[in-house]
Amino acid sequence: MRVGVLTGGGDCPGLNAVMRAVVRKGVGRYGYDFTGFRDGWRGLLEGETVRLDVAAVRGMLPRGGTLLGSSRTNPFSQDDGVRRIRENLAKYEVDALIAIGGEDTLGVAARLTDEYGVRCVGVPKTIDNDLSATDYTFGFNTAVTVATEAIDRLHTTAESHMRVLVVEVMGRHAGWIALHSGLAGGANCILIPEQRFDVDEVCSWVTSRFRASYAPIVVVAEGAMPKGGEMVLKDGSTDSFGHVRLSGVGEWLAKEIESRTGKEARTTVLGHVQRGGTPTAYDRWLATRFGLHAIDAVRDEDWGSMVALRGTDIVRVPLSQATEKLKTVAPELYEEAGVFFG
Amino acid sequence: MRVGVLTGGGDCPGLNAVMRAVVRKGVGRYGYDFTGFRDGWRGLLEGETVRLDVAAVRGMLPRGGTLLGSSRTNPFSQDDGVRRIRENLAKYEVDALIAIGGEDTLGVAARLTDEYGVRCVGVPKTIDNDLSATDYTFGFNTAVTVATEAIDRLHTTAESHMRVLVVEVMGRHAGWIALHSGLAGGANCILIPEQRFDVDEVCSWVTSRFRASYAPIVVVAEGAMPKGGEMVLKDGSTDSFGHVRLSGVGEWLAKEIESRTGKEARTTVLGHVQRGGTPTAYDRWLATRFGLHAIDAVRDEDWGSMVALRGTDIVRVPLSQATEKLKTVAPELYEEAGVFFG
Amino acid sequence: MRVGVLTGGGDCPGLNAVMRAVVRKGVGRYGYDFTGFRDGWRGLLEGETVRLDVAAVRGMLPRGGTLLGSSRTNPFSQDDGVRRIRENLAKYEVDALIAIGGEDTLGVAARLTDEYGVRCVGVPKTIDNDLSATDYTFGFNTAVTVATEAIDRLHTTAESHMRVLVVEVMGRHAGWIALHSGLAGGANCILIPEQRFDVDEVCSWVTSRFRASYAPIVVVAEGAMPKGGEMVLKDGSTDSFGHVRLSGVGEWLAKEIESRTGKEARTTVLGHVQRGGTPTAYDRWLATRFGLHAIDAVRDEDWGSMVALRGTDIVRVPLSQATEKLKTVAPELYEEAGVFFG
Amino acid sequence: MRVGVLTGGGDCPGLNAVMRAVVRKGVGRYGYDFTGFRDGWRGLLEGETVRLDVAAVRGMLPRGGTLLGSSRTNPFSQDDGVRRIRENLAKYEVDALIAIGGEDTLGVAARLTDEYGVRCVGVPKTIDNDLSATDYTFGFNTAVTVATEAIDRLHTTAESHMRVLVVEVMGRHAGWIALHSGLAGGANCILIPEQRFDVDEVCSWVTSRFRASYAPIVVVAEGAMPKGGEMVLKDGSTDSFGHVRLSGVGEWLAKEIESRTGKEARTTVLGHVQRGGTPTAYDRWLATRFGLHAIDAVRDEDWGSMVALRGTDIVRVPLSQATEKLKTVAPELYEEAGVFFG
Questions:
Q1: Which chain D residues touch B if contact means CB-CB below 8 Å?
Q2: Is D177 annotated as a binding-site member?
Q3: Is B233's pLDDT higher than 70?
Q4: Higher pLDDT, D310 or C156
Q5: What is the pLDDT of residues B12-62, one digit of tens each?
Q6: CATH 3.40.50.450 residue ranges for chain B
Q7: How many angstroms separate the CA atoms of D100 and D72, rounded?
Q8: Which residues of B touch A340 (CB under 8 A)?
Q9: pLDDT of D231 higher than 60
Q10: CB A101 within 8 A of CB A73
Q11: HEC per residue, chain A
Q12: In this predicted structure, what is the pLDDT of residue B241?
């Protein structure tokens, strides 16, 4: 049995840990061979491969990024994509495929399995933790940890100078990173994409915090939006993935707070720092277990399945479930955090 | 409503975060007052209190240890323990009690509720993660993170000098810290209390690792024991909690490996470094949510309940469940990790 | 003897460590008493004091910020500033003053000593490390460490996605943080205020890095400026200290790189994360030694002196030297780092 | 010009950073070629080489350990050592040699240059910081940082349980790591090899600390010895370098404190964790500059020289100076730290 492996979408700490586990167990227990495809579906479409054996994954457990590279290439947006994939699977004698990625990557894997009989197993990956099929995804804990450490450091500055500090964290459609890091860092207010925020309410929290002789820290997800009327945030340009680039809710909010409260406000934009570097112990554990169970799904010929975390167990769910529903922050969970606002 | 709070047993990162959440929500949402008792049940027995209001918990989210102090005093081992507890609850006008602790502390709370009608709510705490009623306990992730960082650092030394490095981590009766940190750190073998280890097998893993031109790192839980015949580890003394002190399975194992394989072996004993200091983001989140839900249980007059994590939800379980069963590493989970041994 | 202490200017990890050392040695060895003035010279002008004894400094060694608060109030910009200072020194029976601060704060101390006979001793503080009188200042190592950790994390993202990552670090007039963190983080190019940069050269480094199949990381000090023609960076507003706010050389440069090379570029602006939080071991050591020697200078009645680091020794220099000359990155030191550009 | 490079002695964070700088500048600026010798002088004696070019050093800046491996082989303890070295230098067409190591390694380089005309340049390396020719050596700051982080974590446990915590750190002959980490971590007493300690005095510090309602942390260098009478520490065995293995001053002292004060005491032995893993930003900077200046010394044909740090400058000193004198903690520096004892 030769198993192909590819990683798609944005990078995420733990991708290499997944592959190391897949290869170590696949080679050591089941005697499989592996072929890596470079840059997600692109490598499979264009027949670009990467050696993937025990030596290749040595030392990769603590390494961020992905040794295979990544892209957002979608084979279904190309006329002969499926045909080329089938040809290359045959050419490289690849019997089954493990696709590690987010909604898009796994959506392709689901269609390839369901409609074209390609034998795929999926491993979910999203730094934003917004897949409903799994309790957590690897990378998320690392992002939260990085953001929390930054918030920890900002507290002393906020207090020494009695300034408002706004921290913009990742999260376009779901506020998980903002919610977890904001709670863990002791933020005085957390703004998430799921609920439009009221700038006046934010300012009243800021003001009440100052009255208690402490300085406020506002954590805002990059996708959070104010109530009523649009921010002028879009700069019109699109990034390489075709997304309109939103920039600067943090910067925008800092200026609003300054002008409405008369208090100085500064912004920190953590950006890609949140998604790079070595995974936390938690993410290495989760990624490793995902890998061990993904190769078991291959052995069980459980095509079209995806590994997922439920409580402390790794289970399998249909790949189609992975892309069904965005997991967003429930109102009652956000309300729970509201205890600490102001 | 006045709520008493106490922390018992060994310390654990996150205790202060629990109390901060309890107080912030209790004061802000429900208008409760709080009284802290110093050093666990001792403070309640002896009427020693600590001020516990919003000011007292300010800045405590990232602080390790417990602002109330802790002890292992057990009121049931004293003739008039229950009487004195009732007297002091009356004296300090405390209507309900939140007990934060492990098996012993929660066992007392369960009996006080069930047999004497004291209105208790419990919050589970064990750095070893060995309570079956909850998926995880706070403090555990911090311990695993500290141990993993140490293992990360040892890799380069192990490889530069081709030495065996033995890392002894916490875990007297359960191997969770060893298992998680060993997997996350890329250990070449993990030894846990749940399964007696075979020194010859450990030596064969060590030797095969050297043959692959890499140096082995052995993670051993302090409670792990070799097969057949006892180690001479017990030094006969007992600690202040009456436990016979086991010391040095790490040191003992390093010497055995040296003498059997002819390879140099060194030991690192992390000790209390694993249970002190600031909690990780994960533990702050878990501890905070435990606190928020514990005060809700008080409001709901759900006496005799304990908060617990199930998946991503905080639920309530009977306090009696907390102490029923030690949660140990299941054989199949240990077997899963065995892929990486050798 | 009663000694007054104040901290002025921007905050800096290690301020509390200085004060702890001053008080511990002053009380323990010399039997002095201490009075803290709140928010730098403002507290002395307005007679606002803070208790400063052994209990007040307990636990402050690892804490960022300053327990006294800080401001940029300058007594010489007020008509009766000197008179009020003298009155308050008399009123609070303060015999000598330890002023901890940067150019501005120490400049005031120098004039007060030289022109008005106020008995001052200075401790230098600048996160930017730009004081020529001392090899290093505390806080700088912490800032470099925080920036380096961020750069470390960005490497994997840069490589996985083959993007340019621009990191904007502190340094308005001197490029020390950029130089040290850029070298320690393995940046592919470092831009400092001391030398105007050529955007085309930066782009050629970026391009050559991509040709070697690696992705570039560009570290830019906030005060760095391009050659020829001004950036449109100034937003016209001024901050509370009267500085015109420059914003966004990082963001500006990322856009230039994108448009000139066709490669995606993203920016991380670390901001105040660099100057907050717990000091590194190095900064705690340096701050502690500065404090121990500052109180010795008081005992020696060495008024008008400032402590400074020379090699591994703490020495005393005239306060006036502190403000004489900005210590900038020498061309040959920058040239040394140039080996790694591109 | 072909330059040979080797690393000898115990490992130390920063060795790879030195070599990366040597190679990047040597290739990029001077057009040199490089040959690595495996495991210090052993590789040169036995003709075992390692490829050392720009690709080989890529990504090595943040990596602990040494890509060349290390050993303590001494060519002068072999009959034909010098002859074999000369033969191998000729065989591999190596014109000059950069030796990175401690006293032993540099002592060999000094003799080879002075007595046999081998063209050597040295880079000093000692985690213990005990070379008198340089202000600091790389690796030392990393060790101090690791030890300080451990002490930080121990504070909360010490206080929550009112136990004595003893931390044993590296330092056989010099107490630099103990002194710096003890000061930075806020230890209540620091014991170094340079001055025999009085157990009764240590116990009186411990007791007085408890009286102030705080728990003591004792930092002890592995080479520290009590006054009067020997500890029974030596276990009689010798390690691979012929040193008699001292073990357990920390464990020994904890037991003494327990029996004399009646207070529980626990020990943490950090061991090799202190010398492994990624170098701090400071050590990467120092190691990189050492490397850049070492290759300049080769270009200048300054044979028999060694690079050293003086203040903020990298200078050259004769290799012979490196081994002349052990740099130990001066009594007045230790006395300075004594302010914080008890």
A1: 10-11, 13, 63-66, 69-70, 146, 150, 152-162, 165, 239-240, 264, 266-273, 275-278
A2: no
A3: no
A4: D310
A5: 999 999 999 999 999 999 999 999 999 999 999 999 999 999 999 999 999
A6: 2-139+279-323
A7: 12
A8: 24
A9: no
A10: no
A11: CEEEEEECCCCCCCHHHHHHHHHHHHHHHHCCEEEEECCCHHHHHHCCEEECCHHHHCCCCCCCCCCCCCCCCCHHHCCCHHHHHHHHHHHCCCCEEEEEECHHHHHHHHHHHHHHCCCEEEEECCCCCCECCCCCCCCHHHHHHHHHHHHHHHHHHHHHHCCEEEEEECCCCCCHHHHHHHHHHCCCEEECCCCCECHHHHHHHHHHHHHCCCCCEEEEECCCCECCCCCCCEEEEECCCCCEEECCHHHHHHHHHHHHHCCCEEEEECHHHHHCCCCCHHHHHHHHHHHHHHHHHHHCCCCCEEEEEECCEEEEEEHHHHCCCECCCCHHHHHHHHHHCC
A12: 41
Q: How far, in Å, CA of A98 to CA of A107, rounded?
A: 13
Could you tell me what percent of chain C has a pLDDT over 90? 83
- Catalytic status, residue C198: no
- Angle, CA of A262, A266 and A269, to the nearest 5°: 150
Relative orientation angle of helices A281-299 and A140-161, to the nearest 10 degrees = 170
Find chain B residues with C-beta within 8 A of A24's C-beta.
339-340
Task: Identify the architecture of domain C2-139+279-323 in CATH.
Answer: 3-Layer(aba) Sandwich (3.40)
CA distances, C330 to each of C130, C138, C179, C333, D54 (Å): 12, 21, 11, 5, 27
How large is the average pLDDT for residues C318-342? 91
Tokens of B2: 């006045």
Q: Is B128 annotated as a binding residue?
A: yes
Predicted confidence band of residue D243 (pLDDT cuts 50, 70, 90): very low
Q: What is the pLDDT of residues A300-330, one digit of tens each?
A: 999 999 999 999 999 999 998 877 789 999 9
Q: What is the structure's pLDDT at B229?
A: 53
Q: Which of A287, A288, A293 is nearest to A305 (CA)?
A: A293
Asked if the Cβ–Cβ distance from B157 to D65 is below 8 Å, we say yes
Residues of chain B with CATH 3.40.50.460: 142-275
User: Is A42 assigned a ligand-binding role in the annotation?
Assistant: no
Is the CB of residue C107 less than 8 Å from the CB of residue C114?
no
Show which subunits contact C, needing at least 3 CB pairs below 8 angstroms: A, D
Residue C153's closest CA among D144, A278, D232? A278
- CB count within 10 Å of CB C213 equals 9
Residues in chain A: 342
- Give the homologous superfamily in CATH for domain A142-275: Phosphofructokinase domain (3.40.50.460)
